[in-house]
Design goal:
Structural class: mainly alpha
Distance between the termini: 17 Å
Helix content: over 70%
Order of helices and strands: HHHHHHHHHHH
Largest sheet: none
Radius of gyration: 21 Å
Number of helices: 11
Length: 282
């Protein structure tokens, strides 16, 4: 209960700053209709409650799962298991990232449907999964400076072949994927894998960098999508405007989407518990 109250306090501070800012701007500059302000306040309340519960769930489930899976993959001392496990877990967690869902929906809206939300989410998740294989860097002790140099050299070269409008969308994908689900999970996964290296007396700096490397995977995957699809006329999309939505249908649709996204993580963890049990039933 104490942990949940702390989450409520932290989220309340963050959300209240946004609410105050919007109300001040509305009173002095914009003057939006009060019915929209009411919708905004109801939405802010939903964010406050939902984000508090979500962050508590990350602490008591997602983070322990990531740490457990990292240790489980390194226990066999087989590099192909670490690579395959990191790829699958990276994809699943990125696919379930709420911030990435919002990113996909907004890009689809502003491009007039030229870039479908589900396509963007899937491509970014694949990029995160492929570069999560860089967890092998921790085991091999490969220099992260050299790895970053290689990856960003690839990014700069690929960026020459896409339009400037699409380039902005590409780099926003990396920001969107570093949300409240991917970050704690990949960091916990790194800690679990690094525990294997610590037994070998490795340097502490070899235990970090997976998240930064994985986000470059999102950029590279989006750049490849831009090269092989038509992204020259993205400016033809309409700007996002205010829209009235039905609360309950939107809530149920969101619950459906979140359930679809997070179920693979749950199934993988249950399978790992069956074959390599560690946690108690409680």
């Amino acid at each position: 209960m104490h942990d949940f109250l702390r989450k409520l306090r932290d989220v309340a501070f963050s959300v209240s700053l946004i609410v105050i800012f919007v109300l001040v701007i509305n009173a002095g500059v914009v003057h939006v209709e009060w019915k929209y302000i009411g919708q905004f306040l109801i939405g802010a309340l939903c964010v406050f409650l939902g984000l508090s519960i979500f962050l508590l769930g990350v602490d008591i489930s997602i983070t322990p799962i990531g740490d457990h899976m990292g240790k489980l993959m390194t226990r066999s001392n087989r590099k192909w298991i670490i690579a395959a496990g990191s790829l699958v877990l990276g994809f699943m967690v990125a696919f379930a990232e709420p911030a990435l869902m919002v990113y996909g929906q907004q890009v689809e809206a502003v491009t007039g449907g030229m870039l479908a939300s589900i396509l963007l989410v899937a491509v970014v998740a694949i990029g995160i999964g492929l570069l999560a294989v860089a967890a092998l860097r921790i085991v091999k002790g490969f220099s992260i400076k050299i790895l970053f140099f290689i990856l960003y050299l690839i990014i700069f070269i690929l960026a020459l072949f896409v339009s400037s409008n699409y380039l902005a969308i590409t780099f926003d994908a990396a920001a969107a994927v570093t949300g409240s689900l991917v970050v704690p999970f990949l960091l916990a996964l790194t800690v679990g894998i690094a525990a294997f290296k610590s037994k070998q007396g490795s340097a502490e700096e070899d235990s970090f960098g997976l998240l930064g490397v994985a986000t470059t995977g999102a950029i590279i995957a989006m750049l490849f999508l831009g090269i092989f699809t038509n992204t020259k006329n993205l400016e033809s999309g309409e700007a996002i405007g205010s829209a009235e939505i039905a609360f309950l249908p939107t809530l149920f649709r969101s619950m459906r989407d979140v359930s679809f996204s997070i179920l693979p993580i749950i199934f993988m963890f249950i399978a790992a518990q069956i074959f390599k049990p560690k946690f108690s039933k409680k």
